[in-house]
Amino acid sequence: MDITSPNFENAGPFTRAWEWLKALPVKLWSLAVEFANKMKKLGKDDPRRIIHSLKVGVAITLVSLFYYVRQLFDRFGENGIWAVLTVVLVLEFSVGATLGKGLNRMLATLSAGALAVGVDRVATLFDRTGQPIVIGILVFIVAGTVTFMRFFPALKARYDYGLMIFILTFCLVSVSSYQDDEVLEIAYERLYTIIIGSFIAIIVCICVCPVWIGETLQNQMANNLEKLGNFLEGFGREYFRLSEEGHSTDDKSFLHGYKSVLTSKDKEETMANLARWELWHYRFGFRHPWNRYLKVGTLTRQCAYKLEDLNSYLKYFEIQTPTKFRREIQEPCIQICSESGKALKELASAIKKMRRSTSVNFHIANSKLAAENLKSKLIDNSLWENANLQEIIPTAAVGLVLIDIVPCTVKIVEAFQELASRARFERMDDRVSPSNDV
């Protein structure tokens, strides 16, 4: 009996239960197949996820030796569980995140343990009645102060995890010291096991197929610029083709690529904070100007918002611009789109290769000339005489947005040049511009 049929609803409770049990294996099998397909797709989208999962398994297996090896268990006892917990909490997908958490955890445990031992020594100066009062007051002061420090933006960005571990370790050691006289030994053993767990996590993360968050940030910046360049290069042809033909059959995927740029701020800031921990990367090194990447990202998003305005004219307007007006502004509009798009794509390539590029100045100069040409045409009174403003204004607005995109592109180029100078990008010879061939 089909459980979806009308007869099933009229059947008795035992019959329905039996039919449901018979259909259960089929449902479970379909769910298992669906789950397996999702896992397969997840691994195909980014094979590094599979490698990371294997790395976590290897690290936890290594740290489990605290329980498997008798000598280690006799030395550390039940405190070996802190090494296991440390690996689980510290080992992240990227090297920067793992280093940040590992160093934060080790330093926080060391400083909190030392302070807790100091609190225990101060408390011993009082009698048995006064000790819990002193410990309680000091725990309140330290925990409250460190918690308030977590609200500082500079500390929260890089040391929030360390401050949280500091509070946890300090409270555990200082409170337990009231009933346990071996507080110093407890602090030492926890510190050792946490340091060992952190080092195992860091070594596995760096030595086995490392994922550098700095490279990920750099590639994302380049991809965002390339998306903007693709949009601009295709927009001019797409817009004026719609003006002439009323439709377009070409692939329009380039019109939507820029949308991911609009919401990239939080992700970029997180990656930049984590990338600062990757001091040993061969391409970046110490004091790499990650804040300059954020500046480029901010200007890229500002440009993406202008592209959002351009895209709205493709979606919400039926374009019926007079032929004379359209032909007059078509060439400078397409030139602005083409040259600005090429400039952004050249910047994307330069960021990926970490090299300077002066050829981008050629495209910027051409886009500026096209913008000036478009301005002169838009203020030409002959184009507006006897014209239907309702038909002309949408296309004129597109021209004004394109004019506004040129200085926006210039700002991105200037931010890139500042980044290239601070990061000491490789110098490249200038390309031969087309004007030199004449």
How would you characterize the overall build of this protein?
Belongs to the aromatic acid exporter (TC 2.A.85) family. Keywords: Ion channel, Ion transport, Membrane, Transmembrane, Transmembrane helix, Transport. InterPro entries: ALMT. It is built from 18 helices and no strands. It has helices at residues 6-10, 13-45, 48-63, 65-68, 70-76, 81-90, 95-123, 130-149, 153-176, 183-207, 213-245, 259-262, 265-275, 290-316, 323-353, 359-378, 381-384, 389-423. The relative contact order is 0.08. Helix content is 77%, strand content 0%. The longest helix has 35 residues, at 389-423. It is mostly helical and 438 residues long.
Share of β-strand residues: under 5%
Give the helices and strands as they follow along the chain: HHHHHHHHHHHHHHHHHH
Q: What does the largest sheet look like?
A: none
Tell me which oligomeric state these chains represent.
single chain
What integer is the average pLDDT?
A: 81
Report the strand count. 0
Helix count? 18
Output the structural class: mainly alpha
Shape descriptor reads elongated
Distance between the termini: 83 Å
Helix content: over 70%
Radius of gyration: 32 Å
- Unreliable stretches: 430-438
